Amino acid sequence: MATLALAILRVVLGYIFVMHGWQKYNDIGIAGMQAGFSQMGVPNAEVFAVLVILLELVGGVLLIVGFLSRPIAALLAVEMIGAWVLVHAPNGFFVNENGYELVLILAAAALTIALAGPGRFSLDYAVFGRRKSKLRALA
Questions:
Q1: Are 80 and 56 in contact (CB under 8 A)?
Q2: Can you tell me the distance from the alpha carbon of 65 to that of 86, in angstroms, rounded to the nearest whole number?
Q3: Quick check: 13 and 29 in contact, CB under 8 A?
Q4: Distances (CA, A) of 56 to 4, 16, 19, 23, 97
Q5: CA-to-CA distance for 116 and 113, rounded, in angstroms?
Q6: Running DSSP on this structure, what letter comes out for residue 2?
Q7: What mean pLDDT, rounded, does the chain reach?
């Protein structure tokens, strides 16, 4: 059951990130993201806007298929923590007030995949097999 749960979490989380990355790229655009990040006070907004779009699009797809899941999930968790601290925390909890509700659950889900791994229903498992990681030994 845990393997199925990890697969469901990983695929849904990946889909959410792909959709958000696509929205940033297609609807807002790179220039719009750079301007928005700059206005929000994100350091190196020109660079981070591109990195965030790429991470969400490519990282989301990699999560869906379960390849390089732990490092991608860790990067996505760091991104969400950054969004929480730099953008959403001052607005309170609720998402309808641009609060941190969504980024908190996305960070927690990504951190769960980073720590627990992608499960057996993943390319990681097919490619790398049952190798024990140091993180797994802590579980």
A1: no
A2: 30
A3: no
A4: 23, 9, 8, 10, 23
A5: 5
A6: H
A7: 92
Quick: pLDDT tens for 2-55.
899 999 999 999 999 999 999 999 999 999 999 999 998 888 999 999 999 999
- Give the C-alpha separation, 133 to 13, whole Å: 23
Q: Angle, to 10 degrees, between the axis of helix 2-22 and the axis of helix 69-83?
A: 50
CA angle 58, 61, 62 (to 5 degrees): 85
For the record, the structure tokens of 35 come out as 């301007």
Q: Taking the domains of the chain in order of start, what are their residue ranges? A: 2-138
DSSP track, 48-83: HHHHHHHHHHHHHHHHHHTSSHHHHHHHHHHHHHHH
Structure tokens, 80 = 């969400």
Scan for tokens 């990946």, then name that residue: 14
Nearest CA among 75, 107, 74 for reference residue 88: 107
